[in-house]
Amino acid sequence: MNVKLDPWSSTNVEDYSKLFEEFGIMPFDDLYSRIEDPHRLMRRKVIFGHRSYDRILDAIQNKRPFAVMSGFMPSGRIHLGHKMVMEEIIWHQQKGADAFVGIADREAYSVRGTSWKKCRDTGINEYILSLIALGFEPHGHIYFQSDSNNVKDLSFELGSKVNYSELSAIYGFTGETSVSHMVSAVTQSADILHPQLEEYGGPKPTVVPVGADQDPHIRLTRGLGHKMNMFKIEGREDKNGKHYFSIRSKAAPREALEELADQIPGGTKLFEGHLDVLDADDFEELIRMIRDVELRYGGYAFIPPAATYHRFMSGLQGGKMSSSTPESHIALLDEPKEGSKKIKRAKTGGRISLEEQKKLGGEPDKCSVYELLLFHLIEDDQELSQIYEECVTGQRNCGSCKNLAAEKMEKFLKDHQEKRELARERLDEYLL
Ligand code: TRP
Ligand code: SF4
After folding, report:
1. Which ligand is nearest to the CA of 70?
2. CA 138 centroid distance within chain
3. In angstroms, what is the C-alpha Rg of the chain?
């Protein structure tokens, strides 16, 4: 048998496996086979985990409404890490999602002290132009947090369901943390939940593509989604082991519960504040009825947001990629020549000498140049596989990878920057 070749393993997914056990993130592998023409980042296991993504796949398959949402803080420069999230958003938009992109100016203002003017400028000239250049379609929604009354009003309401202790446990807030910083935390949850407001067609599965480190926000928001809803639905068993559902009212008026009791076919038992549903064979249908009643009585009936989790690229010099160290990453506005120079100087997984390299093979899993090829620069799986194989079997030298990556990067940057200029002319199709 051959040596085990896994061209997609590059940074050890094992590092992330504790996310599965500790935090209940599910392996993306389990769903992978259900995805029709998966995105490059899915095929290569860069997207390695998810929460509730099965709901999104159901929506895609049954052509039901769903949304994709993410946000960008308008501080700093747009780089390849942001590009990855943008590509995920655009992919879902192409699969039929109503797509939302928030420019998190309230967050930049409160957390980084960025002025409103600078937020506007960076939001448009760094993030929005690239988003459009990468293929975001104008039927989606791009907004600044500070412009959206829907987001601001919802964030205020969400704020009533979360307290300081909870935020401090999640974000490490202390007595020194400003109130606005805390507001920006619930604003992010409002970003994520607002595609489900009536204005945008009501409750729908929503996926948030994020880096693995962003999971605390997702958990907070999923929790808030639940807390905002009028009803709590639980599966139970009676003394004889027969399954039933208990629908408890948290904030529903009595009539809402009564209306539900009338509507649900089969046996129901109405108590003060809760309703037992004795034989519901179609759970999805039951949920839909509950949601409809909740909406009619002025509730939100939020569906907890889904998420996909991707791993990160490492820095070009090894270690972490950092937005404050230009040498560690490639920005989408780097001069194309500069981009290719950074690659020429990057750390590879090559051995000390050519001889060693031939004997032992290189280590693509530790190679930042290989990562660039895998994450961004090579679309064809076959071609990438071949590079991997040539590397580990000692038939490839780092110079040829660097040249290939540098050339492709230079071309990408040049091309992308041209597209950004075209996007600039189309801006008014996107922004009110
Ligand atoms: N907090 C995110 C960041 O630091 C930006 C953000 C704002 C966001 N709202 C969001 C991300 C909603 C995902 C979903 O970059
Ligand atoms: Fe990286 Fe290519 Fe060198 Fe292998 S040969 S270590 S993939 S640069």
Report:
1. 1
2. 20
3. 24
**Res 233: pLDDT:** 87
User: d(Cα 133, Cα 420) in Å, to the nearest integer?
Assistant: 5
Q: What is the pLDDT of residues 119-155, one digit of tens each?
A: 999 999 999 999 999 999 999 999 999 999 999 999 9
Packing angle of the helix pair 398-426, 336-344 (nearest 10 deg): 160
Residue 209, both tokens? 């593509």
The contacts of residue 238 (CB under 8 Å, 6+ apart) are: 244
The whole model's pTM is what?
A: 0.93
Residues in contact with ligand 2 by the CB-under-6-Å rule are: 348-350, 362-364, 367, 369-370, 391, 396-398, 401
Q: Residue with structure tokens 């003394």?
A: 239
* Ligand showing the shortest atom-to-Cα distance for residue 348: 2
Residue 302: Cβ-neighbour burial (10 angstroms; 0-12, 13-18, 19+): buried
In Å, how far from its chain's centre is CA 57? 15
Q: DSSP readout, 257-272?
A: HHHHHHHS-S-EEEET
Residue 12 has pLDDT above 50, yes or no: no
CB of 68 closer than 8 Å to CB of 96: no
User: What is the position in ligand 1's atom list of the atom closest to the CA of 104?
Assistant: 7
pLDDT tens-place string over residues 225-258: 999 999 988 888 888 888 888 899 888 888 999 9
Q: Which two tokens stand for residue 248?
A: 């408890």
Cross-strand pairs, 320: 314
Mean pLDDT (whole number) for 93-99: 98
